[in-house]
Design goal:
This protein is an all-alpha fold and 205 residues long. 71% of the residues lie in helices and 3% in strands.
């Protein structure tokens, strides 16, 4: 058991709630999409109308956790961090491309920032294209055909990137602990995120 003096707060309860809820909705969307597009799964699950309904409503709900979470100052601060690239982020990307061991990073490294920006952008794309597919009176048939094409390919890209994200998380126990409890080991934070100010005493998760 680690002492609290050895821990630092990485994510508040609100931030963890947003992450878990968004991840759950995203996984349900991908699972239901697979049941709609893959014939073996469609035959196994059946009840296509119910699957479509779950898929649509979970898709519409995707931005809700983030919008609610923005009432949290900590989440707004982290969202600001994730939206800005700094010289340290460019140095981190160069270090990764050259496989150098020293990779400067603040609370979030450049890879995490790119993933967060990709997730938000792709979420907006699938939501917009999904609305065009669902509300057929919003656009002519040619637009709906294009929306279906974009929606399907973005869904495949999201599934691929998400698989990589999960793989990275599986290999980093401390990151998983931070998302589960809110607290991480101070030595890990200083090693992996040396530009992150971790001097503040940890708060209750």
């Amino acid at each position: 058991m680690r002492r609290r003096a050895e821990l630092v707060l990485r994510f508040t309860r609100a931030e963890r709630w947003v992450h878990r809820t968004t991840a759950t909705l995203m996984m349900i969307c991908l699972a239901t999409a697979a049941c709609l597009y893959l014939a073996p799964l469609a035959e196994l699950v059946g009840r296509r109308r119910l699957v479509v309904t779950v898929h649509v409503w979970c898709g519409l709900a995707l931005p809700v956790p983030l919008l609610l979470g923005l009432t949290s100052r900590a989440l707004r601060t982290d969202a600001s961090r994730l939206s800005r690239f700094t010289p340290a982020d460019r140095a981190w990307l160069r270090a990764v491309s050259r496989r150098l061991p020293l990779r400067p990073a603040g609370k979030f490294n450049a890879g995490q920032k790119l993933y967060a920006q990709w997730t938000l952008g792709s979420m907006l794309v699938v939501l917009g294209t999904g609305l065009l597919m669902w509300l057929t009176h919003l656009a002519p048939p040619a637009w709906r055909t294009g929306a279906t094409f974009v929606h399907d390919w973005f869904a495949l890209a999201i599934a691929t990137v998400l698989a990589g994200h999960i793989r990275m998380a599986i290999g980093d126990r401390e990151s998983r602990l931070g998302m589960r409890t809110g607290l991480v080991d101070r030595r890990w934070a200083e090693r992996e995120h040396p530009h992150w100010q971790t001097a503040a005493a940890p708060e209750p998760p």
